[in-house]
Each structure stands twice: as structure tokens, then as C-alpha cells.
């Protein structure tokens, strides 16, 4: 039977590549969107490229919204086998200027979301004896980043969640892993002024930004049978920018 993958925030720069590669690998793919308006064009582009994705509205920072999304998804498609917690935001400011709402927003979307979304699907994976949870963190959760106390804390917290849940569900055939991308050439990063981008690239030993497709291929591998012995890991994909 075809396995079902859910990618939260799958209409973004990295999410789109993840959805497409999972579909190319033979999975049925569902995604979520939170910003009204963008989904029609994204789905139309995907259809034109030969993909048949399912999209569900969901605010990952809100538990009730995640429960409603899970109910709608189950009714339409059945049980989720592979969950990619990809939705995320930044609200950058030095700690001195960081506002309380911007702290909460980043915690809600990047960290609370792991509880809100995983809670909907992990029990069922355990009961069925197979599952994959893949959490998209960041290099900045590993090394900290100036101007990102909120984002660095939330992204580091994601891996704490991964390590604990991995231990709880390992015997049930469910793996839980974090991946920590460095700078990836998404719209957001390409919008950074060229001189700042060049400075960033100067810090990357491989000498270039990563590609969304490179992140996606790591996820396809983690979702596969061959990755069944990898759990509780935090896999860096950063061109050598941060090691250890
Ligand atoms: P994008 O901004 O392109 O996409 C983020 C996605 O998250 C969007 O689809 C957005 O959906 C969704 N999202 C945001 N807020 C919510 C919410 N409250 N509820 C549901 N969905 C939400 O980002 P990227 O593709 O660049 O990043 C994807 C992940 O990778 C993020 O977790 C990011 O932190 C991480 N990352 C990115 C790096 C990079 O270089 N780009 C580097 C390291 C990590 P919508 O538009 O519908 O709101």
C-alpha cells in the first residue's frame, strides 16, 4: 500500500522540494497551508508539473487547528505514515529589541508545533508498528545566531523533543529525527542583499548555498526502510559551516 506523507508548511521554499521528491519516491503527499490565497496557485503549479497533492488549512501553532486538520486528513486520505514537521518562521531582533509577541510567535510555530502536530499522528504510527517523524530544525539551533534568541531556542528545543520521543517510540517501529540545514537558496535567503549573501557564502566551506532539493533528498532517505536504524539523530546539512 502507498505510504502517506504529511509535510507541514509544504508550500514554502524547502517544503515544495520535499513534497515533490516524496511524490517522486512514490509516496502519497499531503501538505498544510496557513496563509490564505497562496494555495490555489501552488496547487495549480504542482498539477501542471504532474503532481497530485492534497492541501489542508492548518495553523501549526494552534492545537485545535491541528486537530481539525488531522480529522479532515484522516477522513479523506487515511493514516499518516511519514510526518515532516517543516513549517517555521523567523522574527529576528536582538534580545534588547525582541518583543514578547515575536518570542511567542517563533516558539509557537517552530516548537509548540511539534507537540500540536505530532500528537495527532504518532499514536497511530505506534499502533500500526511503523512511522517516521522528521523535524526540520536549523544550524542556528546548533550554534546560536546573533539576533535570533527566539529562533535559536526554538530550533534547539526541537532536537530535545526528537531525542526524547525517539526513545519512547523506538520499539514501535517509529523513528524520530532532526535535520539541521544551514543556509539554503530559498526565496527568503535570495532576498538578502547580495553583499550579505556573499559574506554568508564565505563562511560555508563548500563555497555555496545549499539547494532545497538537497534537503529534500535527505528527507526521502530518512523516510525510507533503509533508515530504520537511524533515530534520535540530528543530521546537519550545512556545507561544513558548523561541525560537531
Ligand atoms: P518558507 O518561509 O518558504 O516556508 C515556511 C512554511 O511554513 C510556509 O509554507 C508557511 O505556510 C508555513 N508556516 C508558517 N507559519 C505557519 C503556521 N503558523 N502554521 C502553519 N504553517 C506555517 O521557509 P523555508 O522553506 O525556507 O523553511 C522551511 C523550514 O526550514 C523552516 O522550519 C525553517 O526554519 C527551516 N530552515 C530554513 C533554512 C533556509 O535557509 N531557508 C535554513 C535552516 C532551516 P504559509 O505560507 O501558508 O503560512
TrEMBL record:
GO terms for cellular component: cytoplasm. One of its GO terms (molecular function) is acetoacetyl-CoA reductase activity. Keywords: Oxidoreductase. Gene3D superfamilies: NAD(P)-binding Rossmann-like Domain. Residues 3-182 form the Ketoreductase domain. Its EC number is 1.1.1.36. It comes from the Bacteria. SUPFAM superfamilies: NAD(P)-binding Rossmann-fold domains. One of its GO terms (biological process) is monocarboxylic acid metabolic process. InterPro entries: Acetoacetyl-CoA_reductase, KR_dom, NAD(P)-bd_dom_sf, Sc_DH/Rdtase_CS, SDR, SDR_fam. Belongs to the short-chain dehydrogenases/reductases (SDR) family. This is Acetoacetyl-CoA reductase. The gene is phbB_2.
